[in-house]
TrEMBL record:
Membrane topology according to the record: Multi-pass membrane protein
Taxonomic superkingdom: Eukaryota
InterPro entries: AA/rel_permease1 (IPR002293)
Keywords assigned by UniProt, alphabetized: Membrane, Transmembrane, Transmembrane helix, Transport
Molecular function as annotated in GO: transmembrane transporter activity
Gene Ontology terms: cellular component: membrane
Subcellular location: Membrane
Record's protein name: Choline transport protein
Coiled-coil positions: none
Main localisation: membrane
Membrane-spanning segments: 16-40, 60-83, 104-125, 145-167, 233-251, 271-291, 303-321
Signal peptide residue numbers: none
Higher taxonomy: Eukaryota, Fungi, Dikarya, Ascomycota, Pezizomycotina
Length: 339
């Protein structure tokens, strides 16, 4: 509700708030980083960098590592979120690519440093995983500070960051729904693409985003497995979109087709970067459907492949029977604006 109200009533303040949150993000990182290193009992460096465990029972450290690769990939997904706001940015074709690269580099570096710190300061792994709080990171904070109030204060920083991250997610999700609706790519497109006079934001798309998120959260009451399977669709969906986009770039580069005009270029390394990226995405996409252990029960099974297949099939059927007659796409829209 907070994210929805913010996106409707304070949308114009989003750049300012995001800048403030960025400052909090940087200071919070160093605050937590220093707290963990100063107060936590530290593990031996040899144990951190050379000892591995096969927690999933795959009988292979390499296999277990591959299955768990999503834990390292997930924090780096979503760098394209700003693209969905590009129509509201100045000089987006120049600013967006650079901001995406810088965001990934800085957050990737921060994440890598924090992972190493966490490994040194995590303490008893079994105690942390089975924490009564239900959140291992909170148990680590408590073990570090030995104080409920201090651990709560540190954890509250993350809660604030997550809350404002959710504001951004609502912004990008609603703009994406609005853009698809404007191109007649989803059912009820006229309603989703409506922008009330004087508001300058797609209120219907924002409210729909809120409604769907609220309904999804209710699934957790009945089955956490079902919720995890549905929410995992976001991961595989993002990976799919990256694969298609980069695949198109590889095709155009290999066939010597002219690329669209752009103020940003990868230069001569463009094709190599695209190929390496595509290869990594394909492997990660396949591994995203793997269960956590080799012999899962119905509750342990990763059902995301079923959800993904159902959504992909239903979307294809909708496009064949309806979308082909109405969908125009962003290229046609831009051409109309240029006329």
């Amino acid at each position: 509700a907070f994210s929805v109200l913010f996106n409707i009533l304070l949308a114009r303040k989003l750049p300012l708030i995001e800048a403030i949150v960025l400052v909090i993000h940087v200071f919070a990182f160093f605050g937590i980083f220093v707290t963990l290193w100063v107060l936590s009992p530290r593990a031996d460096a040899k144990a951190v960098f050379t000892q591995f465990s096969d927690g999933g029972g795959w009988n292979s450290i390499g296999g277990s590592t591959l299955v768990g690769i999503l834990a390292g990939v997930l924090p780096l997904l979503g760098a394209d979120a700003a693209v969905h706001m590009s129509e509201e940015l100045h000089d987006a074709s120049r600013t967006l690519p650079r901001s995406m690269i810088m965001t990934t580099l800085f957050n990737g570096a921060f994440g890598w440093i924090m992972v190493i710190t966490y490994c040194f300061c995590i303490g008893n792994l079994e105690e942390v995983i089975t924490s009564p709080t239900g959140q291992p990171f909170m148990q680590v904070f408590y073990n570090t500070t030995q104080s409920v109030s201090s651990a709560t204060a540190v954890a509250s920083i993350l809660v604030v960051m997550i809350a404002f991250s959710n504001v951004t997610m609502v912004s990008t999700s609603s703009r994406q729904l609005f853009a698809f609706a404007r191109d007649h790519a989803v059912p009820f497109s006229p309603w989703f693409s409506e922008v009330p006079a004087g508001w300058d934001v797609p209120i219907n798309a924002i409210l729909t985003t809120f409604l769907i998120s609220s309904l999804l959260s209710l699934i957790n009451i009945g089955s956490a497995v079902a919720l995890n399977s549905i929410t995992s669709l976001a991961t595989t969906g993002l990976l799919s979109s990256y694969m298609v986009s980069i695949g198109c770039m590889i095709w155009r580069r290999c066939t010597k087709s002219p690329l669209l005009p752009s103020k940003f270029s990868l230069g001569r390394l463009g094709l190599a970067i695209n190929i390496v990226s595509e290869a990594f995405l394909v492997v990660t996409f396949v591994l995203a459907f793997m269960p956590g252990n080799p012999n899962p029960t119905a509750l342990q099974m990763n059902w995301s492949i079923l959800i993904y297949g159902a959504v992909a099939l239903s979307s294809l059927v909708y496009y064949v029977f309806h979308g082909t007659h109405r969908y125009e796409g962003p290229v046609a829209y831009v051409r109309r604006l240029e006329q």
